[in-house]
């Protein structure tokens, strides 16, 4: 008879209690018709699914098919450590969210940035934006991005000189998709629908699932958030069905990237792909990196690398050597020129840089910022008359909730710069329009 593992038994009890706590919280939100909010969507996608729900699956030997037996044997003993660190981060996230609810709700900065975001919703501006993307796509095609198929990211990794162009293009596509989806929700338009379809194709050429699905997922959460409040009801079946479709798309796009195009085969292997593949592998990857880590903290190096992502790596080589991707790959003994890196969850980078203190600080501010955005959306939805201006505000809040994740995992921090660049352009347009209307008003007064 095998020896009874008391420690693992206690961890399973702990996991069960945490899982039960989250389920109760989601149920309470559902009864209050607030199941889908900025806060709950972040908790669901960044905390609950990858760090809590996936915990028992990360220990299964079925992961061997994905990671290999040697890797599995090395990290299986550190999964509990990764889980505890994640729980500490989640606790600090909850504390930060609580503090956000007890402080002033003026939202001056969010309102200011929303003016720039809303200024870009004019159909003429969207048309100009689209043709800029089209022009960039044609240039990338001319350079040779898509000669090897739909693998734009892969081409940019092999050709570092054009990587900034690829990064800018695909982040711009995601931003534009959120704009156009929100615009289409506000007012149906064949032109805007065409923009959405073509931009989805642009995103698909990246070869990554995030480029295609991130904006769609954000919009789905935004849609159900608005409709559940305005209609005073929430269609759980429609939401779960939509989630299932997106999950199938996630698995299928991952298989396409690996050269497997048969949808039936993807559906047949979907269980293993979801629970033992690379779709929600944060807790497993965190444990994997922990198992190979030498214990020397990075002291902010990977964060600096991410936060300086506006500087191309071929100009500043230390950005590559300090990056989170380079660190995670070298920690497990892989070749960083071949493997793009592992994802150690929302609290992994802060831990490898500053230890538990980093996890607590980053977790607190992440929870604080996310709940501030949630309160902003709640305040907007509670307005007496809901109009298109409110749609822009809610769309921007969801966009920023996603951008905040890049402060926690700095490999995508370039997204923040692109978003702020477009919002800055919008703010300039807003200021010019306001100045123009002010002059027109003065002229009319003088004419009278």
Give a verbal description of the structure.
With 448 residues, this protein is an all-alpha fold. Helices cover 75% and strands 0% of the residues. The chain starts with 5 loop residues before the first helix and ends with a helix. The longest helix has 37 residues, at 345-381. It is globular and about 90 Å long. Helix 20 (345-381) runs antiparallel to helix 21 (388-408).
Offer a quick outline of the entry.
This protein has 448 residues and is an all-alpha fold. 75% of the residues lie in helices and 0% in strands. It has helices at 6-31, 38-53, 55-58, 64-67, 69-75, 79-101, 108-118, 123-143, 152-158, 163-186, 190-204, 209-230, 236-257, 263-268, 270-276, 282-292, 301-307, 318-322, 324-331, 345-381, 388-408, 414-447.
Strand content: under 5%
Number of helices: 22
Alpha-carbon distance between the two ends: 98 Å
Q: Mean pLDDT, nearest integer?
A: 86
